[in-house]
């Protein structure tokens, strides 16, 4: 009887985790925040240094909150520096990923950490500051030719001449001060770069994107001139101009053909996203002399003001230039410009629409208020999109109910497609 009980008790206390293969334990530790991984050293003698060989270290703001309201900023910074120094001192082996995203001001200690990483096989580096002055990146960062993933926030990005990251595939820069010429040369010297994301960069009036390997591009921020050159693989482009007027930056030229100039150099583009003020900024009054076809463009998402004729005209030209468009997403975005020409009868006046939506299958319209221009656009789609499968209309809270009933009436004329009309609370028609 005693033997049976002893066996049961011993079975309860069997340490099954410690006997797992080293690579499995390492995988478990990498799923934990770095602070928790380090704390496993107190479990037993076998676990004391298990964390010290994990190839990724993450120091994020969620894992290092201030102790309490009485901890002042310099004490917080000093505590963080001491912790990171200790972790790096005890770590052995390569560090493939390092993330520093803390509520601390940039400091010279970061230079030491980056120098340490440059000598330990770093591949992914994320450095995000949220306060204080922009951090001047040390030159040793640009000698890390093994980097595949680079993510920087609130830094000064001035790569030395002829800097080359032969393995870089992903780059995200936010709140970064960059030099126009230096940035162009840097991107050109990253032969494997696939994803480039820029948000609220400063220090330049324009960007020329030149990369034969680039697949995805995103820009968000104030208006700057954006052009593309030698980007045959670029399949997805997202541009978000958050402001029309930037007192310190450039202003769009008139007439502005940047959108269609860009399409001329984006022969492989499959997905185009133009949010916030982008369509307004890139809107054109006249048809470009040579409207090149974007035969690969199948997905289009825009924020637009249906009441602005110039934006409607630009959208119409986009439709004409992408004959194989299959998916369309429009968020109704009211412009602040009171001087724009009304587009109330725009879609009624257009000719040759029967070939405009030959391949269109899915349409999402969000924020519809039931204005005449919106309803005429919906009617145009239903009349000409012969292969339409789904039309999903989400109404604005201030929707015109009479107009909405009129829209529901003529949506019934399209028998092939599934029509969904809803507001934020319920489905009104299906």
UniProtKB/TrEMBL annotation:
Entry-linked InterPro entries: F-box-like_dom_sf (IPR036047), F-box_dom (IPR001810), LRR_dom_sf (IPR032675), LRR_FXL15/At3g58940/PEG3-like (IPR055411)
Domain F-box/LRR-repeat protein 15/At3g58940/PEG3-like LRR residues, every copy: 110-330
SUPFAM superfamilies for the chain: F-box domain (SSF81383), RNI-like (SSF52047)
Domain F-box: 17-53
Protein name: F-box/FBD/LRR-repeat protein
Organism: Canna indica
């Amino acid at each position: 009887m005693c033997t049976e009980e002893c066996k049961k008790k011993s079975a309860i206390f069997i340490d099954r985790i410690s006997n797992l293969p080293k690579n499995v334990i390492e995988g478990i530790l990498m799923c934990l925040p770095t602070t928790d991984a380090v704390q496993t050293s107190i479990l037993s003698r076998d676990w004391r240094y298990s964390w010290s060989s994990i190839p990724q270290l993450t120091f994020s703001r969620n894992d290092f909150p201030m102790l309490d309201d009485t901890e002042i900023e310099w004490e917080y910074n000093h505590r963080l520096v001491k912790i990171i120094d200790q972790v790096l001192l005890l770590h052995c082996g390569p560090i493939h990923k390092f993330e520093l995203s803390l509520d601390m001001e940039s400091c010279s200690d970061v230079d030491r950490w980056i120098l340490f990483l440059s000598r330990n096989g770093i591949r992914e580096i994320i450095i995000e500051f949220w306060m204080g002055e922009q951090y001047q990146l040390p030159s040793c960062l640009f000698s890390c030719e093994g980097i595949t993933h680079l993510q920087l926030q609130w830094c000064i990005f001035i790569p030395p001449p002829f800097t080359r990251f032969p393995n870089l595939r992903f780059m995200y820069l936010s709140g970064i001060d960059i030099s126009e010429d230096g940035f162009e040369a840097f991107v050109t010297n990253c032969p494997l770069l696939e994803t480039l994301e820029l948000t609220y960069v400063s220090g330049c009036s324009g960007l020329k994107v030149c990369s034969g390997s680039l697949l995805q591009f995103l820009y968000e921020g104030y208006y700057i001139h954006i052009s593309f050159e030698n980007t045959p693989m670029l399949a997805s482009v997202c541009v978000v101009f958050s402001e029309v007027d930037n007192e310190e930056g450039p202003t769009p030229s008139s007439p502005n053909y940047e959108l269609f100039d860009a399409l001329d150099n984006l022969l492989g583009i499959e997905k185009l996203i133009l949010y916030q003020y982008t369509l307004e900024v890139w809107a054109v009054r006249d048809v470009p002399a040579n409207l090149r076809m974007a035969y690969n463009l199948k997905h289009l998402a825009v924020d637009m003001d249906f009441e602005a004729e110039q934006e409607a005209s630009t959208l119409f030209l986009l439709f004409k230039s992408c004959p194989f468009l299959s998916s369309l997403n429009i968020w109704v975005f009211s412009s602040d410009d009171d001087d724009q020409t009304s587009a109330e009868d725009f879609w009624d006046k257009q000719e040759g629409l029967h070939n405009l939506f030959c391949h269109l299958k899915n349409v999402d319209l969000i924020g519809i208020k039931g204005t005449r221009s919106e309803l005429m656009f919906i009617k145009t789609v239903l009349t000409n999109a012969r292969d339409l499968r789904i039309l999903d209309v989400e109404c604005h809270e201030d929707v015109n109910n009479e107009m909405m009933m009129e829209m529901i009436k003529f949506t019934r004329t399209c028998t092939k497609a599934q029509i969904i009309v809803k507001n934020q609370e319920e489905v009104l028609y299906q």
